[in-house]
Design brief:
The protein is mostly helical. It has helices spanning about 15-35, 40-45, 60-70, 85-90, 90-104, and strands at about 50-55, 75-80. The protein has two domains: about 5-35, no CATH class; about 40-104, no CATH class.
């Protein structure tokens, strides 16, 4: 498995609970997520900003967000933190969100 997509269970550092959660996610949730196709024509007609966590570079969420931004003809907006930067760095994330929303 490429390092950029490795999860804790892949390198043996996950707890039994984490491994079970990952297994459930891959078996029951991820398929619907990765098969979803956005309506690009509809999205082009509305106010959309595609945000990407700076610490998520190369991860699936980063790659798919960049593809969406490219398909929309827009530059992705970098945000502090990773995939859940809104939880990891709340004040800094909030400032960046206000900045992005004020100009989109």
């Amino acid at each position: 498995m490429p390092e950029r997509t490795a999860l804790p269970a892949a390198d043996g550092s996950a707890t039994a609970r984490q491994a079970a959660d990952e297994r459930h996610f891959f078996l029951h949730e991820m398929a619907a997520t990765v098969r979803w196709v956005p309506d690009l024509d509809r999205l082009r007609g509305v106010r959309v900003a595609v945000g990407i966590g700076e610490a998520s570079a190369g991860q699936l969420c980063d790659l798919t967000s960049r593809a969406l931004a490219d398909a929309l003809g827009r530059a992705p907006e970098p945000f502090p933190g990773g995939h859940v930067g809104f939880v990891e760095e709340v004040p800094v994330f909030a400032r960046r969100l206000r900045e992005v929303l004020s100009r989109t």
